[in-house]
Structure to design on (325 residues):
């Protein structure tokens, strides 16, 4: 018995339906030509708050609200904090968001604008998480984890459900991988629909905690490094309870990308797909452009790339798309 099962994801979909979008799956002619098979982009960029995180956060908070909770706290590299702030406002709850000083200013500002309290603390995601847990312990807020939580995983799983409904013959799904909440949720629904669906997790070459943990056979800490894919930074928690085991169970292929490749992904999204995506959202496209995905596997059938978010600083975006980042 898994801690999250497909029935949980169906229930999550009902709970979040009014506040979260069913996102479009758009075919990319240029990437389809390159891969020799249909390539579709799952556009989480159009979600309120600009990332898929609103699914898991809205689901977790909706469950807490049903239980009578009114005050939540979280730690975040940006998108989860923003999503919790949005969900709290939508559900009439009070949110406090702890972030490390590495989080870009545009993301901090966005959380404040959604009515949440922000506390900046330390220089790593683990520092921010520690502070959030302290506030939960001492002030009675309920901590909402960014990924390692069954309700968050079930919320992200609604992406997988939409994919298998909209592309029943999907053969490959490529998912950005950090803490693994997104990967675990999508893989749960994909493998339940068809165990032959190949699940690929993509992340940046330096500071990839899940990748290092999979290699080590247990959760390990890595040094945080600045990356264009800032939403993929942060540890998975040495006390990880769910996402490490679920990711290990379902991952068929794990890919690492360097910064130049992620930049090409962002530029491709903009020039060819007319999409503004953040680094973490571009890794699937980057992997395909790099030829990093197994060609024989790609020929098995349609490929879905999960494009997770659009929250990039627009000055950085301009530099990257001009080729000078
Ligand atoms: C959080 C996030 C990810 C990674 O999700 P995990 O559940 O931590 O693996 C990928 N892309 C974007 C845009 C994100 O905000």
């Amino acid at each position: 018995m898994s801690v999250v099962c497909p029935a949980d994801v169906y229930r999550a979909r009902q709970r979040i339906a009014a506040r979260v979008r069913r996102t479009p799956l758009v075919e990319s002619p240029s990437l389809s030509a390159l891969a020799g098979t249909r390539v579709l982009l799952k556009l989480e960029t159009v979600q309120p708050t600009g990332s898929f995180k609103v699914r898991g956060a809205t689901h977790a908070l909706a469950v807490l609200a049903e239980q009578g909770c009114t005050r939540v706290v979280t730690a975040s590299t940006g998108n989860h904090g923003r999503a919790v702030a949005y969900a709290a406002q939508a559900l009439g709850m009070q949110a406090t968001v702890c972030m490390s000083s590495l989080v870009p200013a545009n993301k901090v500002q966005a959380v404040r604008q959604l009515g949440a309290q922000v506390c900046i603390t330390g220089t790593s995601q683990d520092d921010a998480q520690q502070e959030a847990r302290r506030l939960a312990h001492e002030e009675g807020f309920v901590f909402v984890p960014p990924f390692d939580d069954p309700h968050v995983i079930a919320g992200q799983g609604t992406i997988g459900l939409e994919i298998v409904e909209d592309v029943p013959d999907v053969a490959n799904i490529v998912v950005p991988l950090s803490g693994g909440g997104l990967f675990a949720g999508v893989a749960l629904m994909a493998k339940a629909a068809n165990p032959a669906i190949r699940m690929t997790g993509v992340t940046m070459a330096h500071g990839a905690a899940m990748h290092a943990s999979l290699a080590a056979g247990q959760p390990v800490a890595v040094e945080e490094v600045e990356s264009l894919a800032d939403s993929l930074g942060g540890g998975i928690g040495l006390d990880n309870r769910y996402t490490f085991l679920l990711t290990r169970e379902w991952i068929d292929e794990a890919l690492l990308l360097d910064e130049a490749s992620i930049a090409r992904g962002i530029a491709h999204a903009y020039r060819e797909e007319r999409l503004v995506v953040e680094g973490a959202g571009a890794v699937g496209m980057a992997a395909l452009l790099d030829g990093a995905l197994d060609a024989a596997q790609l020929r098995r059938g349609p490929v879905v790339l999960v494009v997770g978010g659009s929250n990039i600083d627009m000055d950085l975006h301009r530099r990257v798309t001009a080729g000078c980042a």
